[in-house]
Specification:
This protein is of the alpha/beta class. It contains 10 helices and 7 strands.
């Protein structure tokens, strides 16, 4: 009977986690949720000040900031080596870092329904450099791949140490943009990079499961309208509390608000605990129903 009690079923105490992009937004909410429930969480990011601010939000002093860059193999190696020396293993890696890339709001239909001319389309699409587009793939796909690879040995050691009953796993923060066909505002690079990392996650899940390392991902946020508070959302919509019900029209978010930090934290705790121990390669869309009202979108 004890195994059905929530304190056992959703227990993450003693778990060791790593979260890239853990200093702000969704990554920070994940880190705070895990740490508040007894996990030790290493957060990785480029900005030292943001990481330190995030670490100070920990309840038990178990959010540990480490500067690192997911686009640098040497940086990822250094972070993994530090954690290996300090703790010796990890149970959970969350590849959460991501960027938007070039977008094209000028190609959205005008209020009167008029569409841009073909000359305007070509001009807008031609404007970004190839390097700008490539950066989105470097962070959103290649960075995720090498983050996973960098921690494979430590994840394997987590299984061997057996400090928690559930096997080690890697989670990836993707986006419902992976399923969108309307790309003008978010940008083709963002949507296709998220579609790519979605498939990458499935492919790695199929391979790594033989090593008892699970892999899955959440499509947590919308490429056009973020479903959880983040720096991207603030930049697009302003610094307003959109978590209040009624702060958004139902045509934008069916639940008429964005997701709250506790809601993304709860999902991660499910995956990280015994409750989600049988998940591998799963897609978990947490967007308040937004994907369901997008024309042409499909799971």
């Amino acid at each position: 009977m004890a195994s059905f009690v929530r304190n056992t079923l959703f227990d993450v105490s003693g778990l060791v986690a790593v979260i890239t992009g853990g200093g702000t937004g969704i990554g920070l909410a994940m880190a705070r949720g895990l740490e508040a429930n007894g996990a030790k969480v290493y957060i990785i990011g480029r900005r030292k000040d943001k990481l330190q601010e995030a670490a100070a939000m920990g309840i038990y002093g178990n959010i540990i900031p480490l500067q690192g860059d997911v686009t640098s193999k040497s940086s990822l190696e250094a972070v993994a080596a530090y954690i290996k020396a300090e703790t010796g293993y990890v149970n959970l890696v969350i590849a959460n870092s991501g960027i938007l890339g070039p977008n094209y709001p000028e190609l959205l239909p005008k209020k009167d329904g008029e569409i841009p001319s073909i000359e305007e389309v070509q001009k807008a699409l031609w404007a970004p450099s190839m390097e700008e587009l490539a950066e989105a793939y470097t962070v959103n796909v290649i960075g995720v791949q090498y983050t996973a690879i960098a921690f494979l040995e430590l994840l394997d050691k987590g299984n061997k140490v057996g400090n928690v009953r559930q096997t080690s796993q890697i989670l990836v923060t993707s986006s419902i943009g992976a399923f969108y066909r309307a790309w003008q505002q978010a940008g083709m690079a963002y949507l296709t990079s998220k579609a790519a990392v979605t498939h990458l996650t499935k492919a790695l899940a199929s391979y790594l499961v033989q090593y008892r390392i699970r892999k899955g991902f959440e499509a947590d946020h919308s490429s056009i309208l973020p479903a959880f508070r983040s720096e991207l959302m603030v930049a697009m919509l302003g610094d307003k509390d959109f978590t209040v019900e009624g702060s958004m029209p139902a045509t934008m978010q069916p639940l008429r608000r964005v997701g709250r930090d506790e809601e993304i934290a709860g999902t991660v705790i499910y995956y990280a605990s015994e409750a989600g121990a049988f998940c591998s390669g799963a897609i978990h869309v947490i967007d308040g129903g937004r994907l369901g009202i997008q024309p042409g979108a499909t799971y």
